[in-house]
Amino acid sequence: MSARRKASLRLVAVAAAAWVTGGAAILLPAAAAGMAVALWIVVLAATAVAGVRALRPASRGDRRAGVQRTAVVAVLAAAASAAVASHVALAMPAREAVAEFAMSDGRAFEVVADVVGKIERRADGALAFDATALRWTAGTQVRETRAEVVVRVDPGAVGALAALDVGSRVVVRGTVSPARPGERAVAVLWAARGVDVARPPGGVAGVTAHLRQGLVRSVVGLPGAGAGLVPGLAVGDTSAVTPALDASMKESSLSHLTAVSGANCALVVGIAFAAAAACGASRGLRCGIGVVVLGGFVLLVTPEPSVVRAAGMAAIAMLGVLLGRTGMGMTVLSLAVTGALVADPWLAASLGFALSTAATASLLVWARPLAAGLARVVPRPLALAISVPLAAQLACGPLLVLIAPHVSLYGVAANLLAGPMAPVTTVLGLAACLAAPVPWVQAGLSALAWLPASWIAAVAGTVSQLPGDLLPWIEGWPGALVLAAVSAAIAAMVIVPGSGAPVRGLRVISAVVVAGVAGVVLGNGALSSVAGRWTLPAEWAVIACDIGQGDAVLMRSAGAVALVDTGPDPAALTACLSRTGIERIDLLVMTHYDLDHAGGVSAVAGRVDTVLHGPHDERAPAVLSVLAAAGAHLVEASAGMTGSLGEARWRALWPLPDSHAFPAGNDASIVLDVRGGGIPPTLLLGDLSASPQRAIEAAGSLDPPYAVVKVAHHGSADQDAALYAAADPGVAVVTVGLGNDYGHPRVEILDLLTQMGAVVARTDRDGMVAIWPDGERLSVWRERGGGVGAAG
Asked: In sequence order, what E strands does 565-688 have?
């Protein structure tokens, strides 16, 4: 390794030390002050020792210089770590004060806050955004305290939704729950009583919000899913991306294209540099113009932490250009990471920060060696094209399986096909965004941007439909470590040159690792699909699919199949249907249209005969049109409606027709009573809260006892005990995702069900759950760790 390359890698240790310290400090905040003091003492002591040694006469030549360089790196690492720990320690008093006030007794709050993050739609249909809380009011108590919070609210509960954007001031009314350990936000505000926009974005924030919204409006009416990608690729606004396209982008490893990253910043700065150079500007002036343009771009796409990080990376790179040291990529990255962690220690627990860092580092370190290795077997231009997405996939894959335990088989190919169109869409989309004052120009540029965006959408849709596009993987950190080993083995097979015995041995070992893990993964994939049918009880009547945080329940009678909701993810639903051998669905029940119940609808389009759906809301047309266009017959449900499924009968207990008390949404979910024809008496409660549950119980609609009850709203705390007591469940099924953000299922409902004598089965721990009658008793099969059990 050259001396210059060694020098460029020294600051990696500084960034790593800051990262580890940041993680420890935010997860153990009580120890942050002690860590900071200890580290500053180390810095002072090491600096003093280095100073004394520097005064001694030289006696060891170059070796002494090497020791001194190592000592400098150690001092810098300790200083950066101390700064990170100090930041956490200094922030803790204010954070603890807010937490103590807000979490005292679960009371209702009114919070005045400034929106600082873009508005995103979550899988359950709710909106979420980051905000800085300014004033907290609980009854007669008022506290003026700044704190970072996350706000979650139903779109229908937002006053002046069009004015809700970064820079607006809002009044949030609802309850508060603690954020997860290690998160920047102190608390999560659940705006059950709504959000009012007290002041829309003003000044620069207002101008940029108007430009972004204008770009979104300019693509309305353009055909196909690609239109929604234009704002995402240009300014990171994904509000126009449909749930189906979002799922396809994720499945094909293309979702990073709609997140503003260092690539976007580099593209914008590169254009500014080129324009300035064409005008004859000096190097210093070009850098100055680049900084100004970069700052404007950050304001346009919203100065979120991820965008600021990407811009900081680009700014440091420009500093390298100004100094004439453009090749020090890892030094630039290390400085950017260290600076970001000092400014925001909570990034140490951010998976997004880890992904962006890993992707950048992999491109700097592995792209060129991978290209050289691939060039031994494919033409060099193709090797260069493959090396970039391959390097990113190998580095980011182990982190991505922590989000979803599967590996995209065609991710590299998808990026190879779609990647070249991303910068074209970005440039044209940005031009369209800035052309808002001239509508006809904006419309033309948006139409031009639509062309490459449609290609990207077509690639995503095609790849996501290929067989085996997502391979199931080991969950959690064990899966990440195994995939890291596989990634290293693949890199070794491609990169290591030569034909000697040591090289051949390394390649053989790497090939054995890859082949062994591939065999296990493919076997597991088979078990989750075709071969998996052999592991399911053949007698099943009701199955709760393990599809994460959402609902997807199958029922079967005399060969006829019903599916109640589709969950949030088409891939997860497809896996469940493949494993159960379901090709056709006679009755699809869409209880309501939140994404955690309707996000997987594209997986069953064209496979459904009849759709029984709940009252329309603003999300209903997008869901139902997909099904109707594929030939399904749509029927709106209301209380009292009945029908058959094979030899079974179903009866709708809810919603009430034309009810103003319970508008479309969770509280107007379809509630079904299904029984007979081999299906035990089953009650499916959708996402109802306690209020409509009380109405059902009071109306005498129930026909207890119920052998199976699908617990409402994934086991939330907002339940009516009287309804469950009246239903008298034998088995209570909780459809819930592992490690979800909501704390579901809540202890209160689990304790209530246990006290009633119900057997509780939950998909987060048990995986897929199958139930069928066995004489006078029920048999319950759990995918993980339970086998077959009986319930009364």
From this structure: 585-590, 608-613, 633-636, 642-645, 648-654, 671-676, 679-684
Query: What are the tens digits of pLDDT across the range 204-214?
Result: 888 888 888 88
The token duo for 75 is: 């001092």
Strands (E), 476-581: 542-544, 553-557, 560-564
Compute how many other C-beta atoms are within 10 angstroms of the C-beta atom of residue 582.
Answer: 17
Count H helices, E strands: the chain?
Answer: 25, 26
- The sign one gets for the Cα dihedral 405, 410, 413, 419 is negative
Peptide linkage before 405 cis (omega within 30 of 0): no
The sign of the CA dihedral 607, 610, 613, 617 is: positive
Whose CA is closest to 553, among 577, 583, 586? 577
**Mean per-residue pLDDT for 246-261?**
76
pTM over 0.70: no
pLDDT tens digit sequence for 647-686:
899 999 989 887 777 877 888 999 999 999 999 999 999 9
What is the DSSP secondary-structure string of 719-762? Answer: --HHHHHHH--SEEEE---TT-TT-PSPHHHHHHHHHTTPEEEE
Q: Where are the beta strands (DSSP E) in 511-583?
A: 542-544, 553-557, 560-564
Mean pLDDT of 541-567: 92
Question: Of 582, 468, 567, which is closest to residue 521 (Cα–Cα)?
Answer: 468
SS3 readout for 224-254: CHHHHHHHHHHHCCCCCCCHHHHHHHHHCCC
CA distances from 193 to 189, 456, 668 (A): 11, 40, 18
Token pair in block for residue 36: 């900071």
Q: How far is CA 309 from CA 306, 405, 409, 413, in A?
A: 5, 27, 30, 28
Alpha helices in 162-242 (DSSP H): 203-219, 229-235
Nearest to 615 by CA among 691, 689, 671: 671
Residue 612: CA count within 13 A, CB half-sphere: 27
List, in sequence order, every residue forming a beta bridge with 589; answer none if it has no partner: 564, 612
Contacts (Cβ under 8 Å, ≥6 apart) of 98: 133, 136, 145, 147, 186, 187
